[in-house]
Amino acid sequence: CFSSGQNRSVFEMQYQSKIILKLEWEAKILKIVTPVLAEVALVYSDNFGLILENGNVIILKLLEACEEEALFVQASFQKSQFQSNPFVDVVFSPFDKNQAAFMDCVGNWCMVHLKHTGSILKLPLLPNACGSIFDPEELDSVWRKVIWTKEHDKLLLFDETKIVSTSLNGNTDLLQLSENKTWSRIHDVVRVGDYIVILTTMEIQILHMNGSGLLSKAFSWKHYFDHQQSLELSTVICGDGNLFVGIHARNTSVLFLYQFRVTRNEPIKVSQLPIYVEFGKPLECFEMISGDLSPYFTEGRKGSSLHTAAVGVVFKLQDESKLCYMELDFN
């Protein structure tokens, strides 16, 4: 799924290069949040989140999808329903498919219940499930991020310089990335399994998350991207213990790829030097994927097969209307 249209206000969902859902809103779509994998059942939820330029959030609940069309219900959560600041991130609970956490541009967060009855979806606020990491020194940036931990009642909250672990009972814990806020700032964060991968202006940091959701620094790798570049991150971990990291500087045609070995009870290691893929046209969006998805992309671009575990990237180029898939070979 991706945004399209002249104003990027159209949401499209494709299956085998065929559009099965197409919806348009009054504002540009800034971010699409995809379904999350359930911690216990190990199945994906059916919820999508769209963050609009006007600061509101659209929730789509997929009821049924086939090769021809997708059936859904939708609801809008207005920023005026909570603090009136534009929302910038949404995360769905991996423990309860009917819960989501929203975060606004100054660090306020709240919990929302997805109440689905028939053809109606409502989004009431959960009482006493809210908080803030507001920092007056961070108002120049609207980047904020919320991630669910391995505990059903614990969240990780991010701004550009710190991580705050918070539980729904109000307990908080601060992890400062650097004593000097100007030395290193966060570009992007992704959770993958038991790890949190953080892309900062200086390095790739890998944090380990234990069963209680507590974080510990496990590894860091210095990169040499320009500090002024806007970077985005995608990661995937394969069953053979390889963690793959993709980094893209927005509005460029190059994707940089890193491979780390993350076997249990051993220090994290760099499997090999980074490689890069040149797409010829600027990337609009991308996602690292574990497993061979080429059967789902009738016109996808495919490379060589891996000898151990297939890993690939789903991507869309600027000014193109279709998603593509490329299988990657790190050998």
- Which overall shape is indicated by the principal axes computed on the Cα atoms? globular
Counting H and I runs of at least 4 residues, what is the number of helices?
0
Q: Helical amount among residues, as a percent range? A: under 10%
Number of strands: 28
Largest sheet, strands/sense/barrel: 4 strands, antiparallel
Q: Give the SSE order as H and E letters.
A: EEEEEEEEEEEEEEEEEEEEEEEEEEEE
What is the CA–CA distance across the termini? 30 Å
**Protein structure class:** mainly beta
What's the rounded overall pLDDT mean?
A: 87
Radius of gyration of CA atoms, rounded to a whole number: 19 Å
Strand content: over 45%
The order of strands across the largest sheet is: 4-5-6-7
Low-confidence stretches: 300-309
Description:
The chain has 331 residues and is an all-beta fold. It contains no helices and 28 strands. The protein has strands spanning 2-4, 10-15, 18-24, 29-33, 47-52, 57-65, 70-77, 87-92, 99-104, 108-113, 115-117, 120-122, 125-132, 145-148, 154-158, 162-167, 172-176, 186-192, 195-200, 203-209, 215-222, 231-237, 242-249, 254-261, 269-278, 283-290, 311-317, 324-328. The strands form eight sheets. A four-stranded antiparallel beta sheet has the order 4-5-6-7, with no helix packed on it. It has a four-stranded antiparallel beta sheet with strand order 8-9-10-13, with no helix packed on it. Strands 14-15-16-17 form a four-stranded antiparallel beta sheet, with no helix packed on it. The protein is globular.
